[in-house]
Amino acid sequence: MTPTEAGAGREYGEHTRAVHTPHPPTPEQTPLGLPVYRTAAFAFSTTQEYAEVLSGRQPGYAYSREGNPTSDAFAAAVAALEAYGVDGPVAGEPFASGMAATTSVLMALCRAGSHVIAPREVYGGTYSALKTLLGRFGVVAEFVDMRDVSAVRAALRPETMVVWAETLANPTMSVTDIAALAALTHEAGAALVVDSTFATPVVYRPLAHGADLVVHSATKYIGGHSDVMGGVVVGRPELVRQVHEVRAELGGSLSPDDAFLLHRGIATLPLRMARHCESALVVAGALSNHPLVETVRYPGLPAHPDHMLAATMFDPGRYGGVVTIVVGGGRDGAAAVCDAARLAAVASSLGGTHSKLSPVAVTTHRQLDDKALALAGIDPGTIRISVGLEDPPDLLADLDQALARG
Questions:
Q1: Is 405 a catalytic residue?
Q2: Helix 256-287 and helix 392-405: axis angle, to 10°?
């Protein structure tokens, strides 16, 4: 009899009895809420079992940096959404943030001398990871127009290991033909990794069209309430295992409490994304006729150069919840409009219940100099609007007065 069994341990001292309390019973019924395994370590019956689990020869958990049931349940849920239409198994790997997921994927697939092709307008954090972090270790990044398949083909080299794409580009909202890119990438023997944060599996599922791995900053739409951070990578199990090994070594592990919140967000993801997309289309349409807005970029508008591609690729009526506009006055003009808003918040991140404004050149893409911004097609006066769940007329009234005051 052990001191953890009810009624046992009376012969032990008070401190021992306080530490070794009875374990709760394992319920026979299935809980509707995801259980939270808030523990750093797991105990074993024998040292042999400990060794077998650590080596991977036996399934189980040893240390939450390497794996946790709650965090794994979240990753498995996202994998199940992304697996729709995929012929074969799909695995998931949880992370503490979207950037932890991004850097771990790149480190898992690249070596010194590897070549990576990425979009010209790639998210600033990814740009910095490629140019600054991985560049120190001999990884060479090349930034091209992902909408031009011939440009990607011309950039491919024998040492190309990764083609990195964004389903909906941040912040230009250009659309990448994932299926065409996958065929080209695989022909060259490289891996296609798609950051699908802006689309989510509600709008588009890259794995079903040939992508090898999909990355999400779960902080955004998957969490959906701006109160939790996390990331996730899904894809072919053999590639996800490589990513897992890097995550376990670097320590970018998702906490079980954050995993619980992210998992809870999945249940309402289709409802929220439908609302985000519907409202974004209304906002984009109205701003396209505004005299103080120079350009509106939203693939749901027929005038968008990628509208027909988006209409073919994406689930019907869903073009994402982000609208990008360009105003006059460059960085100062964009900042003035954002500062004048009252309902929409000037805030980092996106995909939450609240609408958010971001003057791109000094925030999300601050890592790009003026030349890189120009090559990416990002005007200094660009504002990214993450359309929240407010009523569109209220949001439009706020944007109208902000544009007038800015």
A1: no
A2: 70
| Cross-strand pairs, 140 | 115
Cβ neighbours, 10 Å, residue 100: 23
- Please report the pLDDT score of residue 261 as a whole number: 98
Cβ atoms of 290 and 317 closer than 8 Å: no
Residue with tokens 């409009």: 337
Q: What is the pLDDT of residue 1?
A: 40
Euclidean distance between CA atoms 152 and 145, whole angstroms = 7
Q: So what's the pLDDT on residue 7? A: 56
Query: What's the pLDDT at 10?
Result: 67
Mean pLDDT, all residues of the chain:
95
Task: Tell me which of 324 and 364 has the higher pLDDT.
Answer: 324
Q: Report pLDDT for 251.
A: 95
Q: Report the alpha-carbon distance of residue 381 to residue 190 in Å, rounded.
A: 36
The rounded distance, in Å, linking the Cα atoms of 139 and 204 is 30
Residue in 131, 147, 220, 236 annotated catalytic: 220
User: Among 195, 306, 379, 398, which one carries the catalytic annotation?
Assistant: 195
Q: Which of 65, 264, 275, 331 is catalytic?
A: 65
Q: Spell out the alpha helix ranges (H) of 110-148.
A: 124-128
Query: 291 CB contacts (<8 Å, ≥6 apart)?
Result: none
Going by their DSSP bridges, the two strands 322-326 and 382-386 should be labelled as: antiparallel
Catalytic residue list contains 12:
no
Please tell me the distance from the alpha carbon of residue 73 to that of residue 263, in angstroms, as a whole number: 8
Lowest mean pLDDT of 97-106, 234-243, 268-277, 368-377, name the range: 368-377
Catalytic residue among 123, 127, 221, 319, which? 123
Asked about 61 being catalytic, the answer comes back as no
Strand partners, 380: none
Pick from 383, 371, 376, 287: nearest CA to 330: 383
Active-site residue 220, yes or no? yes
